[in-house]
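RETRY 2/3 - previous attempt timed out on the joint model. Re-submitting the same 270-residue input unchanged.
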Amino acid sequence: MSLGLFIFLLMVVVTIVAAVAVVTSRNLVNAAMWLMVALFGAAIAFVLLQATYIAVIQVLVYIGAIAVLIVYTIMLTRDPDEKHVPGVNKQWPIAAVLSLVLFLGLAYFYYTLPQTNVLAPTLDGDLNAISQLGALLVSPNAYVLPFELASILLLAALIGSIVVAWRK
Amino acid sequence: MIPLSWYLIFAAALFSIGLYGVLARKNIIAILMSIELMLTAININFIAFWRYSLPGQMAGQVFAVIVFAVSASEVAVGLALVISLFRRVKLIAADEINLLKW
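RETRY 2/3 succeeded.
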């Protein structure tokens, strides 16, 4: 078994266990910590796929910003009797069956489809992915419009969340 | 070497776990965390398709960057709504907030 395969399988096991812990743990702070583990596993997947910039952004944005924001919100909105209420609602068996059916269907689809059972092509030795990505994001012939729209969306979300959470 | 379908099946498992969390959890913050899991699974799909089909073109990575921006905005606005809701009604269980339910 090669090292890459071993790291992949380890990453899959850790990420899936952490994701299951996120949706099942009663204590929200524990769930947020498990969410950090699951997102870090996804960052390892990005490294294995040789998307290093995306892996760095995953650690910075998801684990560094979003997870910390979630932990702060959990601490600000602590329900005093959350220990006594069940963490899941009444429809949880239907939700579990639906999720399992979705996963089994997708897994069967991916497993049997010939287009998805391919190996990765070798990367060009002189492919500088990060500078190419940066050039494409601001090039008028490529993705400058979605890039600027994303910045407007972020600004709107920033102002909107301040307005919504403002203490009257 | 790892075939593409393994990454896709891994992302499908992550997405299904997130879907279960969205449908079954009571707490709004837990639902938001499950949505983050689903968006991460989508990003893994984008990057896997980029790496296995056209690694010379950056479209998959650009998509992933846009998904990052959208999910950051989504979680910021969502958590602001949770804080505002908690100030008003002291409840963050999704099935008990039924003021607008007919």
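Chain A has six helices and no strands. Closing ticket.
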